[in-house]
Amino acid sequence: MNVLITGGAGFIGSHTADKLIAAGITTVVIDRAKPKYKNDQAVYYRLDLNDPETEEVFRTHAFDCVIHLAAQASVAVSVADPIKDASDNIMASVRVIEYCKKYNVKKIIVSSSAALYAVPQYLPVDEKHPVSFLSPYAISKHTMEEYVKLSGLDYIIFRYANVYGPRQDPHGEAGVVSIFIEKMIKNLPLEIHGDGEQTRDFVYVADVAEMNCRAVLSPASGVVLNVSTNTQTCVNDLFSAIKQNTDYTLAPNRAPSRAGDIKHSVLNNALAAQALDFSPKTALADGLKETVEFFKRTY
Ligand SMILES: NC(=O)c1ccc[n+]([C@@H]2O[C@H](COP(=O)([O-])OP(=O)(O)OC[C@H]3O[C@@H](n4cnc5c(N)ncnc54)[C@H](O)[C@@H]3O)[C@@H](O)[C@H]2O)c1
After folding, report:
1. How far is the CA of 76 from the centre of ligand 1 (A)?
2. Is the dihedral of CA 88, 89, 95, 99 positive or negative?
3. What is the pTM of this model?
4. Which residues, at least 6 apart from 143, have a Cβ–Cβ distance to it below 8 Å?
5. What is the third-level CATH fold of 2-298?
6. CA nearest 182: which of 95, 295, 57?
7. Per-position pLDDT tens, the chain of length 299
């Protein structure tokens, strides 16, 4: 097997590269960023997917499968700069799909998002739930999904819940877990947006990487699958759980809710469990402990 990971220098991509290589799969990465957590056995190309040179990589390597993770991954950035969001999340995805078709890639696995379930009519949301949008990010992810479905390629569309774990960048527009942990190990003030009762489904990155690896090896195709734990955790409880692993002494500051944020999110993962014979195993307490240990070593 010869697999391309776009965005393989990023958080989920770097864990996915390690998992594929451990499974004996030849792994190539395209990312415009310099990899911070490089796997010596992967081949890296530092390129923007919108750069025409990207096609050369497809021509050179006969990929069996592409895991397309490259994206601008922030809801807030998409609200502030929808043009950047559309360029990275729509145009770059269309190029990847077109290169897959042109160079006979058999299967594409893409990373969509729980952001598509913006206004849940029931919880936990399953893949049949109608989609709705509170941000350009959700629109761009949904647009990518529709291009994938029309492509004629074998595909798996993953809709990730909130992924957390070691290597998540706590700076800029990162996920809440990494932002909280970095502040709490340094005993710095932090903000909780809204009343903190908003809920998320936090899934550990090693489990997500395992699902990507299984998706490559599985005959499953033509499916949309939630990647989640089916467990709802509010931000106030997340704060308390991280506090238990640190010596944090401050109370959180309260800040206004953010545009584009969803109130409640928890995703049913039964379909993915059936299709890939796996569901995320790492309990939040264990995943947070691992992540705090990583952050203490790194920051
Ligand atoms: N982290 C989460 O909780 C989460 C949740 C839902 C969906 N996702 C999706 O999963 C994927 C991976 O997310 P992540 O958390 O690892 O983000 P990340 O920012 O760590 O990784 C994304 C990588 O893509 C690269 N990239 C972006 N645009 C590019 C382009 N045009 N050309 C080349 N490289 C480009 C970036 O340099 C980065 O290394 C993204 O598609 C994201 O939208 C993530």
Report:
1. 14
2. positive
3. 0.97
4. 89, 90, 93
5. Rossmann fold (3.40.50)
6. 295
7. 999 999 999 999 999 999 999 999 999 999 999 999 999 999 999 999 999 999 999 999 999 999 999 999 999 899 999 999 999 999 999 999 999 999 999 999 999 999 999 999 999 999 999 999 999 999 999 999 999 999 999 999 999 999 999 999 998 666 899 999 999 999 999 999 999 999 999 999 999 999 999 999 999 999 999 999 999 999 999 999 999 999 999 999 999 998 777 889 999 999 999 999 999 999 999 999 999 999 999 98
Q: Is 284 in the pocket of ligand 1 (CB under 6 A)?
A: no
Atom of ligand 1 at shortest range from CA of 73: 43
Nearest to 103 by CA among 57, 59, 66, 153: 59
Q: What spacing in Å lies between the alpha carbon of 34 and ligand 1's midpoint?
A: 13
**Would the CB of 5 count as within 6 Å of ligand 1?**
no
Q: How far is the centre of ligand 1, averaged over its atoms, from the C-alpha of 9 (Å)?
A: 9
Q: Which residue has the tokens 């809801």?
A: 75
- Annotated catalytic residue 147: no
In sequence order, the β-bridge partners of residue 267 are 125
